Amino acid sequence: MPERHEPEGAISAAGMGGAMDLAASEAATLERTPGGPEGTGPRGRPRSLWSDAWHDLCRDPVFVGSGLVILFLVLISLWPSLIASGNPLACDLSKAQEGPMSGHPFGYDGQGCDVYTRTVYGARASVTVGVCATLGVAVLGSVLGGLAGFFGGMWDGVLSRLTDVFFAIPVVLGGLVLLSVVTSNTVWPVVGFMVLLGWPQISRIARGSVITARQNDYVQAARALGASPARILLRHIAPNAVAPVIVVATIALGTYIALEATLSYLGVGLKPPSVSWGIDISAASLYIRNAPHALLWPSGALAITVLAFIMLGDAVRDALDPKLR
Length: 325
Hints:
Blueprint: H1 7-32, H2 49-58, H3 61-78, H4 115-151, H5 153-167, H6 171-179, H7 188-213, H8 217-224, H9 229-241, H10 243-265, H11 277-284, H12 293-320
């Protein structure tokens, strides 16, 4: 008869030494595993919030899809001639409001300009305004809010009252008043206006994050060891308080692109001969019944761009939120 396996006998034969050998072999196996035990990264190194967030983002189809759309927009903003060989300012009145035809898939607008070429080149102004405004708002708001949250006192009180004043200004109305006196055709007056009215939101986010981070034990330990306020703020608080700022700034980028189009539509943002989706939408709205294609394509490009940045911000927010883990 075949020999039966007796579990009790195997355990008694192994004894305490066998159990310890088994535990040691399991520990060695975990150490050799690329991912390591739970909570550690490659080669057993502790995983940080940023590495976990990047790992989750790479597996998120929303992040990947929106990231590819944004990458395409950045490429055509830098090199629009890659997919559009025409001149966005070259117009032929004899072809005004004509529909799509061979070599001109989007047709012509009311001035006889190629809608496809103007839609491609219009991405440059929108992306430039959105990126520059977001960077300016993030830097200014983070610095002011971080200092107010770290030092507190009179500085915090003054900044809080100042942000209340800026929050009371309607954005579109403020743009109509401030930009109506500007005659420049560049994007910088629009960027400056957005930074001027956009920093209070980031400032409050940064202030709350710094106040929360400075109460942690590692900050108190660094202060007890004699670390200077600058070192505590830059080395211990800022890296742990920047995540909410990144999330809000990423979502706000799409909002700034839509705001630029709104101001250009109202005639106080970018002005001709600049090429912008807002300018084309404003011009095409006058003859929407005769040539709806001239309005469809720039407005569709604007909607896709804003949606891509908002979806990217939502994905980043979900990846950086520890409550969702």
